Amino acid sequence: MTQTADTILHGVGQSARRPDATLKVTGEFAYASDLWLDGMVWGATLRSPHPSAWIRSIDVGPALKLPGVLTVLTHEDVPGTKFYGLDRLDQPVLAIDEVRYQGEPVAVVAADHPETARRAAAAIVVEYEPRQAVTDPRLSQHFVRHQPVRRGETFEAEVVVRGEYEVGMQDQAFLGPESGLAVPAEDGGVDLYIATQWLHVDRDQLAPCLGLPQDKVRLTLSGVGGAFGAREDLSMQVHACMLALRLNRPVKIVYGREESFFGHVHRHPAVMRYEHGATRDGRLVYVKADILLDGGAYCSSSPAVVGNAASLGAGPYEVPNVRVDAIGVYTNNPPCGAMRGFGAVQACYAYESQMDRLAEACGLSPVEIRVRNAVSQGSRLITGQVIDSPAPLAEMLHRLEAMPLPSEGPGRDLRGLPGGVSQTTHGESVRRGVGYGVGIKNICYSEGFDDYSTARVRAELVGGEPHVTVHTAAAEVGQGLVTLQAQIARTELGVADVTVATADTSVGSSGSSSASRQSYVTGGAVRAACEAVRERFEGLPVREALERFGPIEETREYRHRPTYPLDPRTGQGDSHTQLALCVHRAVVDVDVELGLVKVIELAAVQDVGRIMNPQALEGQIHGGSAQGLGLALMEEIQVRDGLVLNPSFTDYLIPTILDMPPMKLEILENPDPAAPYGLRGAGEPPTLSSTPAIAAAVRAATGLRLTRVPMRPEDIALSETGTFDESST
Question: Which residues form the Aldehyde oxidase/xanthine dehydrogenase a/b hammerhead domain (predicted)?
Answer without folding.
Answer: 26-132
